UniProtKB/TrEMBL annotation, chains A, B:
Protein's cellular compartments: Cytoplasm
Gene Ontology BP terms: DNA recombination; DNA repair
Organism: Bifidobacterium psychraerophilum
MF annotations from Gene Ontology: crossover junction DNA endonuclease activity; DNA binding; magnesium ion binding
InterPro entries: RNaseH-like_sf, RNaseH_sf, X-over_junc_endoDNase_Mg_BS, X-over_junc_endoDNase_RuvC
GO cellular component labels: cytoplasm; Holliday junction resolvase complex
Entry protein name: Crossover junction endodeoxyribonuclease RuvC
Gene: ruvC
Length: 193, 193
């Protein structure tokens, strides 16, 4: 199962692709950042991001797209552009009939590191370890997109099941199941997004 | 000059089309609401809105698209969906090479009624008068999309110039020029949107 993670942004939109294989392993496939120039008009920036994300989906034919859930109370200066980039990722997936999942940053951190408040460098190291890379993914901020893809593979009911999934979970990571279910229950509130 | 106004929303996205003619008149062409079902998943809702807006642009081949500017401090329950719908309208326009303009609700109210805090019913009546319609546009909330198109036609430097434009302006409406210029100066702050 190929999973494409998207860390949405209007200036930098991270894309990470992994394979959750029958070999019970998560494998690295690709990481990149789709960029738009802040000096361009907003409509052209959105077009650039949309074309970039569409090209990635065409190149890797993911079975699922995992996108960071954006919250209205996020950074006021960037939240609307972030929400729009997330919307474009959803649109590009929907146009191709690819299922979309939204995961919160806390869910991703818990899934990867077992700590919902993990620091950025800790997340980058764990992504590197889980995907058995020799060095941190570059550019570094693209690790978040890989984390979203991994989070989706490790989620309850996800690509890896039962014993396979247990291999990837530390005791602490199992907290994530609880947190994730809690988030799912409170999700009704955010449906207007 | 054909102008297509968009009042963005994820559940209801208003579309209004007018012509700013050489006859010094603004003429009504079309009004409608593109809808998506709240019970659908967000990615499919965005696809529905995007396809609806794209179809309108193909049907009316506007020379400009005028979209309501969304602010991060808007209603938290709907702001992200509204921003995403606005983003899709920008994307659909950019894909067709149609210039995009963003106007604030205050700009639209001042342009139409001369009052930046005009009530909804006052706006609907003024839109009806300016476009010489026999009755309020239906559905009523689509009047906002027509107001955005009219606002774009009447803006300083817009489709109607000098004497032509003066015909459409009351003394009070001229306040708008000042308010609009003020908004333009402070716009740098919102560039991250």
């Amino acid at each position: 199962m190929i999973i494409l993670g998207v860390d949405p942004g209007l200036t930098r939109c991270g894309v990470g692709v992994i394979e959750a294989g029958a070999s019970r392993r998560l494998s690295f496939i690709h990481v990149d950042v789709v960029r738009s120039a802040p000096e361009e008009s907003q409509d052209l920036r959105l077009l650039t991001i949309f074309n970039g994300l569409s090209a990635k989906m065409d190149a890797f034919s993911p079975d699922a797209v995992s996108i960071e859930r954006v919250f209205a109370q996020s950074n006021r200066n960037t939240v609307l552009g972030t929400a729009q980039a997330a919307g474009l990722a959803m649109l590009a997936a929907a146009q191709r009939g690819i299922p979309v999942a939204l995961h919160t940053p806390t869910e991703a951190k818990l899934a990867i590191s077992g700590n919902g408040k993990a620091e950025k460098i800790q997340m980058e190291r764990m992504v590197t370890t889980i995907l058995r890379l020799n060095q941190l993914p570059k550019p570094a901020d693209a690790a978040d997109a890989l984390a979203l893809a991994i989070c989706h593979a490790l989620r309850p009911g996800g690509a890896l099941q039962g014993g396979e999934r247990e291999q990837h979970l530390t005791a602490a990571q199992r907290q994530w199941t609880t947190a994730s279910q809690k988030a799912a229950r409170s999700r009704g509130v955010g449906r207007g997004m």
